[in-house]
Amino acid sequence: MKATIERATLLKSLSHVQSVVERRNTIPILSNVLIEAASNGCVKLMATDLDLQVVETLSAEVDTPGETTVSAHMLFEIVRKLPDGSQIQLSAADGKMLIVAGRSRFSLSTLPRDDFPVINESELPTHFALPTESLKQIIDKTRFAISVDETRYYLNGIFLHVLKNGEGVMKAAATDGHRLACVTVSCPAGAEDMPDVIIPRKCVVELRKLLDECEEEIKISLSASKICFDLGHAILTSKLIDGTFPDYTRVIPTANDKLLKVNPKALMQGVDRVATIASEKTRAVKMTIEPGKISLSVTSPENGMATEEVPGEYDADHLDIGFNARYLLDILGQIENDVAEIHLAESAAPTLIRDSDQSAALYVLMPMRV
Amino acid sequence: MKATIERATLLKSLSHVQSVVERRNTIPILSNVLIEAASNGCVKLMATDLDLQVVETLSAEVDTPGETTVSAHMLFEIVRKLPDGSQIQLSAADGKMLIVAGRSRFSLSTLPRDDFPVINESELPTHFALPTESLKQIIDKTRFAISVDETRYYLNGIFLHVLKNGEGVMKAAATDGHRLACVTVSCPAGAEDMPDVIIPRKCVVELRKLLDECEEEIKISLSASKICFDLGHAILTSKLIDGTFPDYTRVIPTANDKLLKVNPKALMQGVDRVATIASEKTRAVKMTIEPGKISLSVTSPENGMATEEVPGEYDADHLDIGFNARYLLDILGQIENDVAEIHLAESAAPTLIRDSDQSAALYVLMPMRV
Predict the structure, then answer these.
(1) Residue B366 · residue B352 · CB < 8 Å
(2) N or C: which end of chain A has fewer CB within 10 A?
(3) Would the CB atoms of A109 and B83 count as touching at under 8 Å?
(4) Least Cα separation, residue A103 to chain B (angstroms)
(5) Per its UniProt record, what SUPFAM superfamilies does this chain match (chains A, B) (predicted)?
(6) Nearest CB to B303: which of A104, A108, A276?
(7) CA of B40, closest CA in chain A: separation in Å?
(8) Average confidence (pLDDT) over A160-173
(9) Residue B370: inside a domain
């Protein structure tokens, strides 16, 4: 193999592939990036952690087609430190890859291409395309709610499914049992009969990084066990979480009759301030809601007390309710309008938060006892 | 106590004092800041870790003079989160301090002022003043070399002393046994007979933060056990390290007869690149120096090999020498000219690095076997 690649091009692709590679690996080849140089001037970079695989394609001057694998982090660091504008020559032979640019020469040990594990991208019967903006919205509005509790592995991702009632609706949801985020988009053609899938957090994170550089539409293929995102310059393939997502629609309240309208930024700032006093563990903030006024308060035996008033529009009965400040801030941070709708029932009941009844996203927050 | 202070003023002072407060304290009052409001409109904030004490003075509208102590980090966080432009009212009574600004109210528990430990700033017989720029230079050029090895506590600071030979020279030095940094400034009036002192790292770090906002001159008072920096708006008092700094002048080579002149930036970039390959532990880079050429190389059994050439001016005998890349980069980063002078003797001998023979700072680096 022998190919020459412009530094900026190589660096960008390597930054994508190396972030899929885990820092510690018991299987040595998983630390490596697979480099395939084809005679048509295409160079492919591939990395995997056995669950998630990324393939980047870039153009290069290929003298000798061929393939090899070298340490992804090492190659990334070398290319990062080379001067901007460098032409980088990669050549592999005899178990070594030589990297030459200007007065710098590096020789890295390689591992054989044949040992590199590849996730098969075929046998994915469902095909559809989503606008890049829809996919961004799905991820941005839900990923904060993905559970980090590994014992509830079926909550460690975003649940994507299509309603089978013929309404033409696709829904994405994430929850950790304390809060739920749900986004509704129109069902793209081809996805009508797709199986319900749970996309793992790492796939979500890597996918989101790539989306900023993507064109209008993302082609998605999936089966019940795998999903593949074709982003043009990159293809991301991931195993899906093999589990059953709980029936989250049952926790979305439909009869919360007390509506509070509030400026989300003003409420966030107030909650953030009074939460300074809250103990690290519970982070509980109490909201006392009366017509025209929300009082936020925190009492902590060790630290003291804090109160703050925030204006709000409300004409139902007086209500005291407590929330985890962190969770409430996460959700309020998602509201885009100047007014957030907070639909309440009572102190112990799930609360619904959204921009308006027109918005694609809705959030459910479980209260805390305060 | 009752006083009203503008948020920006209070925030700036609190950011200084709270950084002296350790995050974990076995003595509760050490987590607190002492607030003293005087009838002349002066508010003093004081914090200490028993070794280092900072006192900030700011102007306020004082209704009722008085004093109290509250959690420094808590007060800092509250003030930080209050809106810019707020007028913040502090009032203390009955074991509580009330903080009121706009619609926000906080009540923090206090501890009695009398329990607050104070480092006595009197009994410091030596008095002199240093230009702020000289003090910045002393710190900036030496602090990277301060040892972090707590078993060699006498190296955990900057050694400051005046040559007793009547040359009118003050010297500052820091070393960790692998590298040494030394700065020479002219001896200020009043410092001629000062005792040799070792200023602890934490004092150096906090002092440096404050210097950017300081006027032309810093008034320094010291004894053999304490040092006090009067910065105008703030007074920093620190205990000195009770130990003997080694006679570092003996390791500064005087007969290194091989002179290499090199662009420090070019050498840094080269060293940084080849060091990518070096094992995390040794970080060893080999320099092969010949007339007109420096070859940098690293060989690592696990990672591979790297070489790079850097142009340099040299007309002595061929020399192979190894350095810890991190240490060499630290020193080269201090060179301000376009040319660094590297004075070499042989592979196992200390190397002298400096801007020129006119420069106030010089560095000594011990080589490594490669």
Answers:
(1) no
(2) C
(3) no
(4) 5
(5) DNA clamp
(6) A108
(7) 30
(8) 92
(9) no
Half-sphere exposure of B116 (CA within 13 A, CB side): 26
| Residue range(s) defining the domain that contains residue A326 | 252-365
> CA dist A184 to A144, A224, A367, B78, Å?
17, 21, 24, 38
Last residue of a domain, one of A115, A138, A153: A115
Q: B260 and B186: one domain?
A: no
Q: Are residues A135 and A244 in the same domain?
A: yes
Cα distance between residue B114 and residue A10, in whole Å: 64
In terms of domains, do A88 and A7 share one? yes
Is A355 found in the same domain as A259? yes
Alpha-carbon gap: B255 to the closest alpha carbon of chain A (Å): 33
DSSP one-letter string for A312-327 = -B--S--EEEEEEHHH
CATH code for the domain in which residue A257 is found: 3.10.150.10
How many A/B residue pairs have CB atoms within 8 Å? 88
pLDDT digits (tens, 9 = 90+) for B235-253: 999 999 999 999 999 999 9
Residue A266 Cα, gap to closest chain B Cα (Å): 11
Number of domains in chain A: 3
pTM for the full model? Answer: 0.91
Given a cut of 90, whether residue B132 has pLDDT beyond it is: yes
Complex-level ipTM: 0.89
Nearest chain A residue to B277, by CA: A74
Task: Encode pLDDT of B150-173 as tens digits.
Answer: 999 999 999 999 998 878 999 999
pLDDT tens-place string over residues A327-369: 999 999 999 999 999 999 999 999 999 999 899 999 999 999 8
- Test A274 with B96 for CB contact under 8 angstroms: no
Q: Are residues B191 and B92 in the same domain?
A: no
User: Same structural domain for residues A16 and A81?
Assistant: yes
Write out pLDDT tens, residues B103-125: 999 999 999 999 999 998 778 99
**Contact indicator for A232, A46 with CB cutoff of 8 Å:** no
What pLDDT is recorded for position A280?
Answer: 80
- A120 lies in some domain: no
| Predicted local distance difference test score (pLDDT) of residue A25 | 86
- Residue closest to B334 by CA, chosen among B159, B154, B174, B163: B174
Task: Evaluate whether A41 touches A8 at the Cβ level (below 8 Å).
Answer: no
Identify whether A215 is part of a domain: yes
Which of A233, A250, A267 is the C-terminal boundary of a domain?
A250
Q: Inform me whether the pLDDT recorded for B370 exceeds 90.
A: no
Sign of CA dihedral A149, A151, A153, A155: negative
B82 part of contact set with chain A, CB < 8 Å:
yes
Same domain, B271 and B174: no
Residues of A with CB below 8 A from B308's CB? 103-105
Contacts of B270 in chain A (CB under 8 A): 103-104
